[in-house]
Amino acid sequence: MTILALKNVSKSFGALKVTDNVSFEVPEGMALGIIGPNGAGKSTLFNLITGNIGADSGSIEFLGRDVTRTPARQRCVSGVGRSFQIPQPFSKLTVYENLLVAGTFGRDKSEAEVAHTCAIILERTELISKANAPAGGLSLLERKRLELARAMATHPRLLLLDEIAGGLTDAECQSLIETIKAIHAEGVTIIWIEHVLHALNSVVERLLVLDFGKVIGVGDPAAIMESKEVKEIYLGIEI
Ligand SMILES: Nc1ncnc2c1ncn2[C@@H]1O[C@H](COP(=O)(O)OP(=O)(O)OP(=O)(O)O)[C@@H](O)[C@H]1O
What we know:
Layout: E1 2-13, E2 16-27, E3 31-35, H1 42-50, E4 57-62, E5 65-66, H2 72-77, E6 80-82, H3 95-104, H4 111-124, H5 140-153, E7 158-162, H6 170-185, E8 189-193, H7 197-201, E9 206-211, E10 214-219, H8 221-226, H9 228-233
Parallel strand pairs: 3-8, 3-9, 6-7, 7-8
Antiparallel strand pairs: 1-2, 1-4, 4-5, 9-10
Bound molecules: adenosine-5'-triphosphate.
């Protein structure tokens, strides 16, 4: 089953076309990586999928339903979760309270249900020992983990990760990869934008390359990394 389908989606900021006639489909259960140079339009693509910004043209389907004009909150409630490139937790709230906000947002769930699931998510994202610590005092890895945990607290069927491994040491990155793999193994569909290619390629089954807002390649990660176009455009190697 296709969980997400973009058809001819375009978006401009003034004269700058940041998303240029983008079409692709993601089968449920897949982990898809998105790579591309700085400014290629990767985060904008996430904002279009989540509804944080609206498309100028084209359509976006989630779980077979057209969500092109659906507000962000409703898309989140129906199963689109995301992490942001720059973690911005509620710094004066505790880690646990941050999760409660995400878990409660827009949902018709009892406080007891939300409290229970948030505790489980804190375990799975290795933040349980920090549950009562103010989020403002977390290390970078912990803040990245909190981004992941907050996204998980919204119960996503599709999880969008925006450069979640950026700035981490190799060891930190490896521990985060294991957590992401475990989430994926439970059946959550993942789309992951990342510049840390070894992290990305250890999780994803397919890679999509964006350049100047256009999809210039999509397919098996090894084949994509070896393609002439990707080496020239993304890695800056002249062939
Ligand atoms: N709200 C906005 N208004 C105007 N221009 C924007 C807006 N959002 C993004 N842009 C521009 O669109 C282009 C693509 O930005 P985007 O953040 O999507 O790229 P990216 O591929 O995610 O880059 P990076 O890898 O550096 O995060 C950039 O030139 C950016 O300055």
